[in-house]
Amino acid sequence: METMTVIVLLISWGLAVGEPTGVQYTEKAFVGDSVLLPCACSGMTTSLVWQIGVRVVSFYPQNENDKSPINESYLNRTQLFLHMEKSNCSLLLHKVSLVDSGVYTCYVLTNVTKGITSLKPLQVNLTVYEHENGTKGIQEGGENKDSSSVHIGIPILAVVIILAAGLLLTLRALRRRKQRQNIVYVPATVQGNEV
Where does the Ig-like domain start and stop, copy by copy (predicted)? Predict the structure, then answer.
């Protein structure tokens, strides 16, 4: 019951005060992939709620049997790290779909001193893209890239190498031809007689 009270308190506080201004992070993902929504917190974090609008995506602490505050579309698709690492309030969202696009808010409730708490909201804008041509996206360096660009890049590189080799061979053949044309034939003379 304590967890439910904290969630209701956080949701109502967020609605009463209004959403925080400005998105701090922007994340991109492809349909079906997993995406990490970052949120840093202190080691004194007592409660955490992730929301999109008024829908609860995940919360901490969470009783394994009581997931009722979580929106049905997010059940069994989220993972929090706060129970493992007290300074990591990030949310891992699995099997994203186009409807998961939107601004997510991370509400962190922290004990500042005994009886005084601080609420720090953070926003992450998630954009979900469909895969082009049925290919799966590749994530490198925090950016999502379509693997079809790799498949297209290799043949283009091969064509460029073949064209460069052909150009070098043509230039070499032209140089040899020019050298042959520059050879002057001097008629041979026989002693005393011209040929």
Answer: 20-117
